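Q: Sequence in, structure out?
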Amino acid sequence: MVLETWYYKWVSGVDINMKVLLAESIHKLGIDLLKEAAEVKIAKDNSEQSILEEIVDADALIMRSSPLPGNVIRQSKKLKVIGKHGGGVDNIDLHAANEMGVAVINVPDANILSVAEHTMTVILCLAKKIREAEDALRSGFFNQQASLPGMVTKHGFTALELCGKTLGIVGVGRIGRLTARIARYGFSMDVYGYDPYVSAEEMKGEGVEPIDSIDEIFCTADFVSIHVPLDEHTLNLVDKKLISLMKPTAFLINIARGGIVNEDDLYEALKSKAIAGAAVDVYEKEPPSPKHPLFDLDNIIVTPHMAAMTDGALIRMAQDIAQGIIEVLNGTKPKHLINPEIWS
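A: Exactly. Output:
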């Protein structure tokens, strides 16, 4: 083992005495890869205080979705790179990272399949009334002298076919495009997209009909799915005004980030039945309170920020971020560098 460690240091140029701090554990395959190049330490928890205590002598830090404020970044005198175990870096203070000359990297390709699959899963659950039907069956509602199919139609459990329905995608990036492909070619849905940063030609190449106005997406779609990052431009992007444009038979899906959809406005729309339903995987404050108002409603599917938590995605995210960390520590410019202005 000593010989192997020396050999790795010799061929890679990485200082084997470097320390990589993990705010939370990641998949073992990623940790094993990091251990070939550096000491790996997992913080006792992901609180700000715990990270502050450990980051002082860390050369690299890997974060999941917990906040990383600027005062924590500035605490370390050795920090060279912050890795995001995932795509969005809205939980990391990029201004402080730039100020300290710290590279910020992510793994935007690692979880797109899992998130797109989750999006289609909740769309199917909403369309097929899976939650309502299961709850009714378990409670004994269907224990009557009648046929099950007859009671399904009589009591309003008739489901929707996705074929021919319209999916409106807000944010036609990696995840939005894959979701569009699955919806279009797997379920024969009509897919429309709104994204001011993606050309009409690119969208059409993915089978997405470009729409110039976000208002039109909300007016026409049977299902509206959000796939944009959280930043100052998208905070509360989906508010009462946009939701009010939706058809009463339409559904809203947010698998992107909490804060993009105004939760108070969504609650009011669902409670008043202004829209048919919604599915939410992310929240303004995470973890959400068990008394969150949305949890009292029966026309919404709620999941605990789990869209990317699959067997394949967890391995890819861990291995890809470990590789990116090693590249930076080795002085190699990484593939997915969020702040290239600091690289020299």
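The first strand starts at residue 19 and ends at 22.
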